[in-house]
Amino acid sequence: MQEFFPLKKIAFLSDYIPRRCGIATFAASLCEAISAQFPQTDCLVAAINDTPKGYDYPPEVHFEIDEQNPLSYRHAAEFFNLNNVDVVSIQHEFGIYGGETGEFILGFLKALEIPSIVTLHTILKEPNKKQHSIIQQLDHYCERFIVMTEKGKEFLETIYGVSSKKIDIIAHGVLDVPFVDSNLFKERFHVEGKTVLLSFGLLSPNKGLEYVIKALPSILQKNPQVVYLIVGETHPHHLGRHGETYREELINLARECGVTDHVVFHNNFVSTEQLREFISAADIYITPYCNEAQICSGTLAYAFGAGKALISTPYWHAQELLSNEHGILVPFKNSEAISDAVNRFLADPNLMMAMRKKAWDAGRAMIWPVVAQRYEESFKKARLARSQSAGYAITNKTFSIPPLNLDHLERMTDQTGLLQHATYHIPNLKDAYCVDDNARALILTVLLKHPSKNQKQLEHFADIYLAFLSYAFDFEKCRFRNFMNYEHQWQEAFGSEDSHARAIWATGTILGKSSNQGHRKLCESLFQCGIAPVLKFTSPRSWAFTILGIMEYLPSSEGDCTTRHVGDLLAEKLLHLYYRNTSSDWKWFEPYVTYDNARLSQALISYGSTHPEMLEVGLTSLRWLLQEQLSPKGHFSPIGCHGFWKRDGVKAHFDQQPIEACAMVSACLAAYAATHDSFWKQSTQCCFEWFLGRNDLGLSLYDKKTGGCCDGLLPDRVNGNQGGEALLSFLLARAEMVSL
Question: Whole-model pTM?
Answer without folding.
Answer: 0.73
